[in-house]
UniProtKB/TrEMBL annotation:
Keyword Transmembrane helix applies: yes
Lineage, opening ranks: Bacteria, Thermotogati, Thermotogota, Thermotogae, Thermotogales
Entries under Pfam families matching the protein: VanZ
Protein name: VanZ-like domain-containing protein
Domain VanZ-like as annotated: residue spans: 8-155
Source organism: Thermosipho africanus (strain TCF52B)
InterPro entries assigned to the protein according to its UniProt record, in alphabetical order: VanZ-like (IPR006976)
Length: 177
């Protein structure tokens, strides 16, 4: 029960963080993404990751997927990646939260549906902070949720399999002794 309370507190705090970011005025939000873009450019000057073939392919793929064109400023890609990342984490937490109570496919469905409801409400409330709401943002959020839940399922079942293997190994060693 302590695990469930902890996970649901994490989920609530994460939702509050999402709504906090959404409540920022457009100018402040733009300044935040500009700041992150500048940091990424400085890191790129040191590591030079943006010149790799993989980076260029991923960048073009995401721009075409999210904006329907590859000609988008880096700052916009940073903003949409933040959407994806915030909801990826919410989807990840949601799977574990719902899976503690529902041990079947419905935990996965709820782990996708609940955060998507939050994404829709988030976009809706943005209009009260002089920000535009966008169906495209909800779709990006949903993709983050889906990948977060998929990653959580992979992590969960990988650890479950590892635990089963070690249990089986422990049982066979006990039988031999």
């Amino acid at each position: 029960m302590k695990k469930a309370i902890f996970i649901f507190i994490l989920i609530i705090l994460w939702i509050l963080l999402i709504f906090y970011f959404s409540s920022r005025n457009p100018l402040y939000s733009s300044q935040q993404s500009s700041f992150v873009t500048k940091i990424l450019r400085k890191i790129d000057q040191i590591i030079d990751f943006s010149d790799t073939t993989l980076f260029k392919k991923v960048e073009i793929f995401l721009k075409k997927l999210w904006f329907k064109t590859q000609y988008v400023p880096a700052e916009m890609l940073v903003r949409k990646t933040a959407h994806f990342g915030l909801y990826f984490i919410l989807g990840f937490f949601s799977f574990f939260g719902f899976h503690l109570f529902i041990k079947n496919i419905f935990s996965i469905l709820l782990a996708i549906t609940f955060p998507n409801l939050i994404a829709v409400l988030d976009e809706y409330t943005q209009q009260y902070y002089n920000r535009g709401s966008s169906l495209n943002d909800v779709i990006i959020d949903l993709s983050g949720i889906t990948f977060g839940v998929a990653f959580a399922v992979i992590v969960y079942y990988t650890f479950k399999l590892i635990r089963k293997i070690f249990k089986k190994k422990g049982n066979s060693e006990n039988l031999q002794n």
